[in-house]
Design brief:
By secondary structure, the chain is mainly α. It has a single domain (3-136), classed as Hypothetical protein af1432 (Orthogonal Bundle). The chain contains 11 helices and no strands. Bound molecules: fe (ii) ion (2 copies). One fe (ii) ion is lined by residues 21, 25, 50-51, 127.
Length: 188
């Protein structure tokens, strides 16, 4: 599938705001990919489809996660998490993308996980720092992303965890594990 077709396939599933975000993630992901050993066209496809399921009903997304026997914490730790695993499923079933690297990057783009692949890291970080994102800490994370992707991901995870704690919300365990792992294994 070429870029034009991919964008045409995703557009009806997104709001205008989310489509602009998707284009930002695509551009940022391609920039991050320059320094990594990854296939650029796969990075672009993963970025374009990463939020494919964002506007599906919560019931549909919960049903998919249950039927696939995926970690039920995707359901119990907050509705924001549903669209990532559900998106990986729907992109495979409805769009016909079977590539495991792409599907896994979509699956983990919201929570992150321990030992992410280069493709997973790129999509996770691009989703966090793309130019339309505006929240405290994003500029520092953008600057770090130009120097060290792992340190930038650690900053993004720390910001997310801090945000959740301040709002008295639970932290998805894999997010915490990813933060711990990077804190123990990166400098800066
Ligand atoms: Fe997302
Ligand atoms: Fe996104």
């Amino acid at each position: 599938m070429d870029r034009k077709e991919a964008l045409e396939r995703v557009k009806p599933h997104l709001t205008e705001h989310r489509y602009v975000h998707t284009l930002g993630v695509r551009d940022t992901a391609l920039k991050l990919a320059e320094k990594e050993d990854v296939e650029k066209d796969k990075v672009e496809t993963a970025a374009i489809f990463h939020d494919y399921a964002k506007f599906r009903s919560k019931e549909e997304m919960r049903r998919i996660i249950e039927a696939e026997n995926w970690n039920e914490q995707f359901i119990t730790y907050g509705d924001e998490l549903l669209h990532a695993p559900a998106g990986a499923y729907l992109v495979e079933k409805e769009v016909g993308i079977k590539d495991e690297e792409i599907l896994s990057a979509i699956f983990w783009h919201t929570t992150g996980k321990v030992d992410m692949s280069p493709m997973e890291k790129i999509i996770f970080l691009a989703d966090y720092i793309e130019p339309n994102r505006k929240f405290p800490g994003v500029e520092e994370t953008r600057e770090e992303a130009e120097k060290d992707m792992d340190c930038a991901i650690k900053m993004a995870l720390r910001n997310t965890i801090t945000f959740l704690l301040k709002k008295n919300q639970p932290v998805f365990p894999e997010t915490l594990f990813a933060y711990n792992h990077l804190t123990l294994n990166t400098n800066g």
